[in-house]
Amino acid sequence: MLTASVTLKDFVIPNTELIPKEVRSKVKKWSDYIDYWAVDWDFQNDTFMQGWVAYRTRRDRTLALTSDAHSYEKPGRHRLVVKVVDIFGNDASQAYDADVK
C-alpha cells in the first residue's frame, strides 16, 4: 500500500503589527495562529474535498501538525491541496504535486 502524510512546518501571517498586542502576547509559536487545517489528497482542480482535518476546540487547544497517513491504490502523481484557517478566520490554500511510488 502506498501512503503519504503532510506535516505543517511553518505559517506566516502578514502584517503581524496589525494584530492586537493582547493576542500577540499569547502567541508563543507560529502554530498558535492556526485554528484549523485540512488536506485534499487528490485535488481535481475544482472543489476542495477534505480527506483529513485537524482543528482546535474550546476544550482542547492542541493541534496536530502532522496528518494521518493517506493510502493510495496506484502510484503516480497526485495533486494535494492543504488549506489552513487562522485564528482570525482567514483561509489560505497551497497546492503540491506529490509523486507517490
Order of helices and strands: EHEEEEE
- CATH architecture descriptor: Sandwich
Helix segment tally = 1
Number of DSSP E strands: 6
Largest sheet: 4 strands, antiparallel
Distance from N terminus to C terminus (CA atoms, Å) equals 10 Å
Average of pLDDT: 92
Show unreliable segments: none
Mind telling me the CATH class?
Answer: Mainly Beta
Question: How would you briefly describe this protein structure?
Answer:
By secondary structure, the chain is mainly beta.
What does it look like?
The protein has 101 residues and is mainly β. It has one domain: Immunoglobulin-like. The protein is built from one helix and six strands, in the order βαβββββ. The radius of gyration is 15 Å and the shape is elongated.
Reconstruct the topology from this structure.
Layout: E1 2-4, H1 21-24, E2 34-40, E3 52-55, E4 70-72, E5 76-86, E6 91-100
Antiparallel strand pairs: 1-4, 2-3, 2-5, 5-6
Keywords:
6 strands; mainly beta; single chain; 38% strand
